[in-house]
Amino acid sequence: MKKITIAVDGFSSTGKSTLAKQLAKALGYVYVDTGAMYRAITLFAMQEGFISEKSEDIRSLVETLSTIDLKFKYNEALGFSEMYLNGKNVEKEIRSLEVSKNVSRIAELEEVRKKLVNLQKVMGKEKGIVMDGRDIGTVVFPDAELKIFMTASPEKRAYRRYKELLDRGDKVVYEDILENVQKRDYIDSHREFSPLKKADDAIEFDNSDMGLKEQFERIHNYALRVIEKE
Ligand code: DC
Predict the structure, then answer these.
(1) Ligand 1 proximity of 103 Cβ (cutoff 6 Å)
(2) Does residue 1 register a pLDDT over 90?
(3) Which of 170, 182, 177, 202 is nearest to 93 (CA)?
(4) Fold for the domain defined by 5-229
């Protein structure tokens, strides 16, 4: 059967990665979490002291971008790929609230977007890929055969993220998360380069009141129909 490209875009914490992972597994496709790439560059900028709550030195970050090596390595036990920054597994660190607070500032830099979009295009050259992010259906793969745009209310999304961080042992306050979700929505959809927006040919999917199983079944069936037609 012919392989296709599936782009999953949408606001933060809409469950894009859960859905994209499930779809990739069911179809035998590769899954790529592009948010992890923006998060890894943000972590690098924080570790190097290029960005903090009080200051930023974007120029130094841009000058050292070529030294940053990003790789996904498949973890057999977990069943998905983990992010490596310059050879080190950073999967846990990139999911912290600190990184979430800084990532939109990094993701709006043109040079960062250029570097990551190029890498993403190479990863998807062979098709048979499910990629999630913000600009996959609009910029990275405008010709993707299936584009899904996910939405849910900010409160529902903040609550999901809050539970996720609590479950992994982080001490967090719901109101801080909600504020972070709303701030990121604003920056992500108003930035100059590749703002978050639904591609004209994407299917919009609001999962505010939908369980994971129902959501997966509906989209999986739809994907199978698209693949059959190819
Ligand atoms: O999906 P996520 O929450 O892990 O993404 C982290 C941030 O990276 C998010 O605030 C927006 C940005 N991002 C982006 O600008 N473009 C992408 N393709 C993926 C993520």
Answers:
(1) yes
(2) no
(3) 170
(4) Rossmann fold (3.40.50)
For atom 18 of ligand 1, the residue with the nearest CA is 133
pLDDT of amino acid 53: 81
Ligand 1 and 91: CB distance under 6 A? no
115 Cβ closer than 6 Å to some ligand 1 atom: no
Q: What is the mean pLDDT of the chain?
A: 94
Query: Does the Cβ of 108 fall within 6 Å of ligand 1?
Result: no
Structure tokens, 149? 């745009």
Q: Order the strands of the 80-85 sheet from edge to edge.
A: 70-75, 80-85, 88-89
Residue 228 C-alpha to ligand 1 middle, in angstroms? 31
149 pairs with which residues across the strands?
A: 9, 204
Long-range interactions of 225-230: CB distance < 8 A, separation 24+: 226/4, 226/145, 226/146, 227/1, 227/2, 227/3, 227/4, 227/27, 227/145, 228/1, 230/2, 230/4, 230/145
